[in-house]
Design brief:
This protein has ten helices and three strands; from the N terminus they run ααααβββαααααα. Strands 1-2-3 form a three-stranded antiparallel sheet. The chain is 44% helix and 7% strand.
Length: 241
Amino acid sequence: MPERKFAKANRGFKGIWIPASSWLDENLTIQEMLFLAEIDSLDIDEKGCYATNKHFSDFFGLTAGRCSQVITSLKEKGYIEVELVFNKKKDIKNRTIKVVNKLNTPIKNIKGGYLENCARSNTSFSNTKDILSSSEKIPYSEIISYLNQVTNKKYKVTQKWKDLIKARWNEGQRLDDFKKVIDVKTGQWINNQEMNKYLRPATLFGNKFDDYLNEYRPQISSSISDEIAESQRKIAEAYEQ
């Protein structure tokens, strides 16, 4: 793990104050809460702050990739707004991060920016404002149902599986990510007698989730596609009876 490094930075504060609304927010992981506090401490005027992913990597002692994931998660959960500016080569020229509710000042919506110069950043953000409630419901049933449909299995929505799904959700994964992992591993394992048994929540939604998510998705043969379609048809008929 990288060591923490501190660079000089303009900060409009004498310490970090985290309001109860953030400290007790179950939708924030500890890591996300600390990132939000750091972003807030550097966002001191209308020009915002100039800090790259490398800054967060050095400050928290994390990889740049992990920092990117945390910032993405904060954006998806609605705690920050992110806007990217690209140059002619389609490289990221500037990244503007806006804290939706300031922590070190009375809570209010702000229009101040968080400006970042980051050429060829590995972050992936949209300029679209996507505000999600902190009480956002996790679609446990839909995720397990999709797994059962694609793999023709019959898993129940147990607390054990909900805990796994919630852990990944708190890392910033969303419904489409769960479906992609299910699709990817089904394409690889469904016709493999030895690996088919691993098409289960314990394996798919565990610590290797992010690795699975970033795997190349192979083309599923027509025979496999037909089998999946047939299994989905049988399940649909069963529910209609």
